[in-house]
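Researcher: I'm preparing a figure for a lab meeting and need a structural model of a single chain. I don't have an experimental structure, so a prediction will have to do for now. The sequence is pasted below. Please return the structure as tokens so I can convert it later.
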Amino acid sequence: QRPCTIFFRKNKTKMKKRFLTGLALLRTRVEAFPPNFSSANGKSIPVDRKEKDLKGFKLHSTIGDLFANMLGGGGSKFSPPVVMGDESIMSPKEHGTSNTPVQQNLRWGCDFETADRICNFNRHYAEFSGYWEARTSFLKDESAASGEIEFFDSNSGKPLFIAPKNRSFEDFVKESKNHGWPSFRDDEVVWDNVRILPNGEAISVDGTHLGHNLPDRKGNRYCINLVSVAGQLSTSK
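Model: Understood. Here is the structure written out token by token.
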């Protein structure tokens, strides 16, 4: 028998579990917000029809990512430097999964309502693919001259990511464009304030939904909603 056949037979149960986990992650990023998604104040907010057009969506996880998940990433625990979290972080609080709404003055012109529902009243949906390019000023405001850019929690203002690190700004933008969402690597995560749940969901220690960890051949890749990390630096201790 061929080595690959022996491997798959010996690891049938484990592979099946990872395959199903990968499919779940794949599905997460294809879905758009439902037609009337409840906002923070309980009112129904119609979603831009363009955001629901699947032609405008890039999969937040590629088929390659799916098989990378099957062969090692995700499932129940990610290897260091990932800091794992548990469901208690996302327990109901005063404002959805957080104690406060998102900041009013989000950076790069990110929309308050979109940010608030993604960050605080959501576990599965995302800003539409390419939102960070088409609807924000990120690529106008930032460049290689910006150096290492700090990305702050849209709720708490705590630092969550610092990018680019150990790569160029151009490489960071290229990878993010390829996947449709800002994509960070292990060295760019501020692990004091970020946690990854067993299903791959990326969250802040304060209960902000950020996105998902979708490993690929290069390692962990954190696909993150820009609206979740567009906060202003908090000056409170």
